[in-house]
Amino acid sequence: MMLIVFLLLLLLCHSACKTQTTSCTSPEDLFPIQHEFYQPGDLIIGGMTSHIYIFHNAPSFNEIPTQKLTNEPTSIPKHYQYLLALAFAMEEINGNPNLLPNTTLGFRVLTGYYRVQLNYKATLSLLSMPFLPNFKCERQNHLISVIGGCCTETSASVATILNIYNIPQLTFGTFSPEQSDKRRFPSIYQMVPNVAYEYMGAVRLFQHFRWSWVGLVALDDDNGDRFLRAVIPLLSMNGICYSFIVKTGKRVYMEEIINILFRIQKQYPVLLDNKTNVYFAYGDPIGLHIMRLLLLAGEAASLQSLGKVWFVTSQWNFESLSEHTGLDLQTFHGALSFTLHSHQPPGFQKFLQNVRPFWAKGDHFIQEFWEKAFGCSLQHSELQEERKERCTGEEKLESIPGVFFEMNMFDHSYNVYNAAYAVAHALRAMSMSRSKYKRLEEGEKQEIHNVQPWQLHRYLRSISFNNTAGDIVHFDENGALVTSFDVTNWVTFSNGSFVRVKVGRLDPRAPQGQELTLNDDQIVWHRSFNQVVPLSECNGHCQPGSWKQKIEGNNFCCYSCRPCPEGMISDRQDMNSCVNCLEELHPNEDQNKCIPKIQSYLSRKEPLGIVLALLAISFFLITVFIFTIFVQYRDTPIVKANNRTLTYILLISLQLCFLCSLLFIGQPGKVVCLLRQTAFGIIFSVAISSVLAKTITVVLAFMATKPGSSMRKWVGKRMANAIIFSCTFIQASICSVWLSSSPPFPDMDMHSLNGKIILECNEGSEAMFYCILGYMGFLAIVSFMVAFLARKLPDSFNETKFITFSMLVFCSVWLSFVPTYLSTKGKYMVAVEIFSILASSAGLLGCIFSPKCYIIILKPELNNKEQLIRRNNKGISISPSL
């Protein structure tokens, strides 16, 4: 199997003088390839790159190979654009007389290997020729700066040596947070932001689409482990879980194909998890190749394609070795990634259109690139592995699929372009700084003399300029480029080509929570989702009206949905708990929003209020009718019997009792609350004390009729009036204390009934309210006991039988009132009290006055004195008039 190891080092050099120097011995026997790719003038820039090798006899899947099958390296066609971007930058810099006047730049590109040991050798070869540490021949080129390494390991290993000489290195590969330590790597300037920004951006993107269940894919190496250590806690802190972790090897060998297939057989079913539709993948182009091989073999073994959303880090790229090794990209259709923000420098595509096989002297890479990209053979080609058609040399780069070459400047190519300009601007800043202290002789050529690499640091740290594409280039205090990321949507096609679509932006400098902006409508998803935003979660969303209950022993992203408790709501999906509404609001039926509560009181317009009001008015009219009869027949014996005045007082108090029940119907106000309980208590006290006075009068009258009785002096209106006044005064005193200490007031009960605000009269002091009821009960019980004891007196003088029965009804009503009143809520409490008032008043009215009305209206012949003195009057008991 083939894999890619790529390293690009760009070296800024300059000419110290115009004199001829002795050239050094070529080190190609020690370092296989060293080519001057582009050398237009005074200043030379060099670089280093690695190629593809085929290895065998590797001890394990993860180990770096130690043998190569061929001695000749193989390059990746797409990486050739890095060199062209640098060449284009040099052409622009040299053609701009205002940037570095009277000075030209060139560069040198060196090839190296993925192995760290050979990277060290390559770096030393740049510092010394021949390959002898710290030995440098006198030559024209002087190393000033290094632009290098899209691979982290390459940049780190090169920096280890460059730090000794304090030579600036501008790396366009991603550095991990550990490798961004300025104490370990003081001479490195990163052309990309810190990778931690990407990880946080990924979290924001997952939160934007509400993806809480993602799979993690990483290379099985130190970088992959660092990725997992950084990402897993970050996801957890933001409510996102990982469903699985798949590690892919960084090298693949022909001898391990069988082992890989066995490994795929175990891992591929994990990738097919239906709940996990989003994969967060970390890796470099090498890892992408391996992943594509794994997926291709997995689909072939399981006969099931993988339709998922891939979110990949900025190191990934779609590239291939040649037209024969380009694998199907349909699995990655609709993938998302953060790519380094870039614009197209004007003139770059025109520059690419002029590239031909022999377009520049010393370009030893274009032959291999041309043959691989176009599948043809150039004359004198050293690659004769298979028979190919002869290249015409007029092939167009724009006709090459994107996996081999792209006409637009993206990602690393744009960073190489900016890095070259950064060095040029640093040299210009140095030149301008020196001119302040040193006046040049008139007509002298302005050149940069005796520039040492360490001198550039001061100017690179503070460099800030606008490149030709309009972007500002400057570094932060940690030596990282201050820039943003583009959110790129990768749209692939069946012919192996693809299109990058910018669908958003990630700005690390934006306020927290606003770093990510997305245009959702522009995103193309994998074909398996039919352009519907994919779901990736352990279980379905908990809809509003329910809450997430953690399942014991499972990941926190896996939960069950439970309805909200009564009186609580959840107005969003996936709420961790339900919440209460404000006091004036209550949950709707679905418990997903709060709605205003309905005001509840016993209204005169509702059926219950109307019925109770009609009953009260009807009983009032009946009482008025009875009172009218008694007034009309006031001189008859039956009316005069048992104190006519007490009868009038009782009838009037009963009328007021029926009317006072109307105070309980309707919306309670301040005056109504003050009046209704106190009026009810005093009026009822008058009625019951009147009944008590009647009962006592009967007993005293009977006792006064006995010969020699001393009770005659107690019989009369004065005694009855004293009883009524004293009993009523006590109740009035209780009411006065109540009103002066804690009077009733209008109130709203928000909690007793769900969805309703009960408009009520707060009793102020419930103790005083029950004192009033207790006192009335005491009077009723005394009246009942006195009437009960006097029930066997002679019939013609006895009204106590009817009073006894009326008091029995009265006490029964009010004894049942207390538990009923306490067990009801809202307007039904008021209805219970009204009913008790009407029932007890009607009981007094019916039991005491119905027999008398019967005689007055229907049996007038019995309403005479002769009948009254008869001891047996057919069951009608009337006391003699007093």
Secondary structure blueprint with pairings:
Elements: E1 9-15, E2 34-38, E3 45-50, H1 80-94, E4 107-112, H2 116-127, E5 141-148, H3 152-165, E6 169-171, E7 188-190, H4 195-209, E8 213-219, H5 222-237, E9 241-248, H6 257-271, E10 278-281, H7 285-302, E11 309-312, E12 335-340, H8 348-353, H9 366-374, E13 376-377, E14 389-390, H10 411-437, H11 456-461, E15 464-466, E16 472-474, E17 485-492, E18 498-506, E19 516-518, E20 546-550, E21 559-563, E22 568-569, E23 579-580, E24 585-587, E25 594-596, E26 598-600, H12 607-632, H13 637-640, H14 644-660, H15 670-704, H16 717-741, E27 745-749, E28 756-762, H17 766-789, H18 800-823, H19 827-858, H20 865-869
Parallel strand pairs: 3-4, 5-6, 6-7, 8-9, 8-10, 10-11, 11-12, 13-14, 26-28
Antiparallel strand pairs: 1-3, 1-5, 2-4, 12-17, 15-16, 17-18, 18-19, 20-21, 22-23, 24-25, 27-28
Task: Note down, in words, how this protein is organized.
With about 900 residues, the protein is α/β, with parallel strands linked by helices. About 40% of the residues lie in helices and about 15% in strands. It is built from 20 helices and 28 strands. Helix 2 runs parallel beside helix 3 (about 150-165). It is rod-shaped. Mean pLDDT is about 75; it is low at about 1-75, about 130-140, about 440-445 and about 870-880.
Keyword list:
882 residues, Rossmann fold, eight-stranded mixed beta sheet, alpha/beta
